[in-house]
Amino acid sequence: MSWGTRRRNTIITIFFTIVFSIIGWVLYDALYEPPNCFDKKWNGDEVNIDCGGSCSLRCESQVLNPIIRWTRSFEVSPGVYNVLAYLENPNIDSGTQNVPYRFRVFDSENVLLQERRGSIAIIPKSILPILENTLPVGKLEANRVVFEFTEPLVWYKQDLLENLIVVQDEEISRLEDSPRIRASVKNTGIKPIKDLKVIAIVYDAQDNAMASSQTILKTVPPNQNMEVFFVWPKPFESEMSRFELIPLYDRTNQ
Q1: Backbone dihedral angles phi then psi of residue 232, each to the nearest 5 degrees
Q2: How far apart are CA 15 and CA 215, in angstroms?
Q3: Domain range enclosing 238
């Protein structure tokens, strides 16, 4: 092979190498998708497929399930009960939105008397009482309450936000005939807080919950106090040892 032929072949080889490199780069640039949290692939800094790392979705291995401390039913009138589940979210940076749940009320023979469904949001590192009012059960007596989530919990990264509602000046009176609790709530933030729910729970000497109620304030203006009241139509069945008032609201808008 002559020198000219070799030179020509070298030039052709270099030419096609450059052309194919350019084509390859164009195709790569056109087809390549950078790692993201919705591509159903385990890539980037993810802990698992599309979760953990910089993704807002938490992996199952990163979170703990809410702790259901207790559930109770409270008779408010013959054949009508309130039911309450007392939950704790131990996760300091994870929460959920619109989690469906259900209460089921059974009698002593394990017959289902009533069912009530709802949905909730769970914020990081929080105590969450879930109260459903006025469940009718007819002439039978409620004996057992079961609370459960009806779908798997999907956790997302959330900041731990300060509770801006301060409960103060609590007092209870008229224990002998129609118990009532009065308190004031103060919004310490700079924005109005809407749809503030305050749940009252009354405990006996063994620290078992024996009564509950709730009130809702449509709007609490910033840096203002508002009064809340809870009333029961008849005396408690046991001697009261303490009560707690728990404010609940959407902290993501504060």
Answers
A1: -115, 140
A2: 80
A3: 165-253
